[in-house]
Amino acid sequence: MTSLQSIDYVAIAAPLVVALVALGVLVLDTFLPPARKVVAGWVSVAGLAVAGVLLVPLVGDTRRTFCVPGDGLVLPACSYVVDELTLVFQALVVAGALVCVLLSLDTVRDTALPSGEYFFLLLSSVSGALTLAASRDLLTLVVALEVVSLPAFALVALRRFDSRSSEAALKLFLVSVVSTAVMLFGLSLVYGVTGQVHLERIATALDDPSLSQPALALGVTLALAGFGFKVAAVPFHFWAPDTYEGAPVPVAAYLSVVSKAAGFVGLALLLTEGFAPYVDSWGPAVAVVAAVTMTVGNLAALRQTRAVRLLAWSSVAQSGYMLVPLGSAVAGDVDAVLPATVAYVVAYAVMNLGAFSVVTLVGRHREANALADYRGLGRTEPLSAFALAFALACLAGLPPGLLGLFAKIVVFRAPVDQGAGWLAVVMAVNVVIGLYYYLAWATTMYARTAEDARPPSYRISWSDGVAIGATLGAALTLSVVPDTILRF
Amino acid sequence: MPLLMPVLLAGLLFCIGVYGVLARRNAILVLMSVELMLNAVNINLVAFDVWLRDELLAGQVFTLFVITIAAAEVGLGLAIVLLVFRNRATSSLDEMTELREDAA
Amino acid sequence: MSSTATVLAAATDTGTGEAVTFWVLGPLAVLAALGMLASKKAVHSALLLALTMLSLAVLYLAQDAPFLGVVQVVVYTGAVMMLFLFVLMLVGVDSADSLVETLRGQRVAAVLGAVGFGALLVFALGDAVVTNEGLDQANSEGNVEGLANLIFARYVFAFEVTSALLITAAIGAMVLAHRERHLPKITQRDLSVQRFRGGQYPAPLPSPGVYARHNAVDTPALLPDGTPADASVSRVLAARGDVRSIPEQASTTAIERAAPRREDDGS
Questions:
Q1: Which of C164, C171, C180 sits opposite A147 (nearest CB)?
Q2: What is the ipTM of this complex?
Q3: How many CB pairs under 8 A join B and C?
Q4: In CATH, what number does C10-93 get?
Q5: Domain ranges in chain C?
Q6: What's the whole-model pTM score?
Q7: Inter-CA distances, A74 with A4, A198, C24, C82, C141, Å
Q8: pLDDT tens digits for A404-421?
C-alpha cells in the first residue's frame, strides 16, 4: 500500500550538509593535536558557508518533497517545503550561526571547552533550525524543535566545572521540557479533533464548523506554549536572563538570535499555515502575550547592571515586538502579517548579533561584563564602540539606527492597519521605555573616565574582527537600503 | 470503549504531572513529573488514533516520536542533573540561586 | 446529559474485555501517579511511576497498538525509569523531598484547575462522540508491519531527523556526564615510591596484642623490650580512651597463669 517517497536532495541539501559537517567535525576533532583544535572551528565555518551557497539554487521557486499523495478526499500534502518564507529564515539561520561560530573560536580556545563536541552540538542545532523552517507537518515540526533545543542545553552546560553554567543549563532544560510537554498535549488534541498532522490539511479540516470547538481552543492554546518558550515570551521567559548569563557569551548570542528565529518560524508556520482559520481565537491571545512580554522585558531591563543580562531582558522585550504583527492578524487575510514579522526578525538578528559580538569581545577581558566596564570604550576601541553604539541605536529604533526604526515602523503599522489600536499604543510606550536603557549604555561608552582608571584597550583577534565588522556592515547596509528586507 | 474515557485519563495524568512540576523541589522528581505529562500525551494520541481509524496511523507514529523525544530528553537531562550535583552537591531547585536578579 | 447517554451507549457497543481492562488499569495508573506525587522517598516515586507506565503499556496492548505497548515497556519502564533509578542512586537515595506548599491555597487551586480541565474535556469530547461514528468502523490494521511501512515511507523525514536528535542527545549526555582525568592515574609504583619518600614508617602497622585470655583490638602489643607499641591500636580507640593499659594487664595475666600452676604442682 505504500511506496517510498521521492526525495528532492537539492531541497534538503542545506540541513543535510550541516548535519554531515557536524559529524565530520566530531570525528575530525579526535585526530587533531591539542594545539590545532581550532581547525574544527574553521571546518564548521566552511560547512556553514557551503550550506549558505546551497540555498542559492532554491531562490525563486517553491520545492516540495516527502509528500503524501492525496486520495480524492484529501489534498496531497508535503512534509518538507522550501518557499520564500523558509528560505529567508534558512539564510538568516546560516548567517547568524556563522557569526556565532566566529565568535566561538576564541572562546573555545580560551576557556578550554571541548572543541569537537562544541561545534558538533552547535551545528546539530543549526541543522535542526534549518529543518524547522521547512517542516510542514506536526511530527517534523516537533522533532525539529527538539533538535534545535537539545544541543542548546548541552552547549550551555559545556563549561563543566562552572556551577553557574550547569545551573543555567538546568533552568533552561526544565522550562524547555515542561513547555514541550504542554505543547505536545495541545498538539495531541489538535490531531484528535482534526485527524491530520500536515499543516495544510489541518487548515482545511479546521474550516469544518462541526468540529469540537472547545477541544480545539484548548489544543491551540496549549500548542502555543512550546513556541512561547522558544521565543522567550511571558510567562515562559524567566529562563532567559539566567541562562544567557550562565552560558558562554557566544552561546547566549546563539540562543537569542538563531534559536529564537527558529522559534519564530515555527510559531509563524503553525499559526498562519496550520491554525489560519482559527485566527479569531489565537489572534487576541498572541496580542496580549505580545503586550505583556514587551512590557515585562523593558521594565526589567531598566534595572540591569550587567551587559549580558540587559541584552537578555532586551531580547525578551524584542520578542514582544516580533509577536505584535501575529497578534494583530485578522480572519481571511492571515498571511498579510507575515512580512512584518519576517522583517523584524531579520532586523533583530542583525542588530542583536552586532551587540553580542562586542559584548563577547569585552567579556573576554572583563569577567563580570558589567555596564561600568564599557566606560571609556569609545576612546580606546573606537570601532568596536561604534559598532555597539550603532547596534544599540538600532535596537532602540533611534536615528542613525535606521534599520531598527524602519523595522519598528513596519511592525507598528500592522496593528494600526488591522484595527488593534491598543496594541500599537502599548508598543509605542514600550519603545520609549527602551530608549532609556539602550541610550544610557551607549553614552556610557563615550563618557569621561576618571584619570587614574586606565580605560580598556583590547587586541582584537581576526575572527572577532570579522564578526563585528560583518554585523556592523550588515546593519549599516540595511539602514541605507531597508527595502531588501522590508519587501517581503 | 468510548473515546472520552482514555482522554479523561490522559487529562488527569497530565494535571497530576503539572502539579508535580510545580510542587516538587528536587530536579529529578520534576523530571519524573514531566515524564508523566508526556505519557498523558501518548494516551491521547493512541486513543485518538484508534478512534479516528487513521489510515496513516499518524497517532501511533506520533506516539513513537514522543517516546523517542522523551528518552532523548531524559538522557540529556539526567546528565545535566549529575553535572549540577557534581558542582553543587545538591539537586534541589531551591538552591539554584547563584544566577538571579540583582538586589539593586 | 445527552453526551453521557451516548457514552454509555458506546460503552455497551464495544468489547467488554477492553472496557474491563480500562476500568482496572486506568484507576491503577491514576493511583500510582498520585502516589508518585505524594511519596516522600524518591525511589518510591520512581517505582510508582514505573507502575503507571506499565499499566499504560497494557492499555495500549488492549487498544490495538501492540507495538507501542511493547515499546512502552522496553523504552519507558526498561530504559528511562531504570536510568532515573540509576541517577537517584548516584545522587543519593536519601534525597527525600516532601510536597511543600509554596503558594497559599495551592492544592485547592490545583484540584479546582484539574476539575475544570476535566470538565472542559468532557464538554469538548462528549460533543465529538456525538458527531462522529468512528467507533462503529471495523478494526483495521494496527499492526507492526503497517507501522513500519508508515515510518519508512510516509514519515521517513521525521524519522531521519529523530536519528539526529538521538545522536545529539547521546553525545551531549556523554560529554556532560564524562569526568575527565586532569592528573595522570596514580599507579601502585607511584604509591610505594610516595610511601618511602615520605620518610614515614613504610611497613604495615603492628597488629594489636595477642594474649592468652585478652586477645582484643583494644590491647596494644608488646615490643621485644616489654614496652607497649602504641601504633598497634586504632587511633579511634585511643581517642575514646578505651585502650587497656599493658603493664597491669600483662602482669595480672602472668600472676593468674602462675597461681593455678603452682596449685597443680602442689596437689
A1: C164
A2: 0.95
A3: 222
A4: 1.20.120.1200
A5: 10-93, 151-179, 208-266
A6: 0.86
A7: 20, 11, 39, 44, 21
A8: 899 999 898 888 888 888
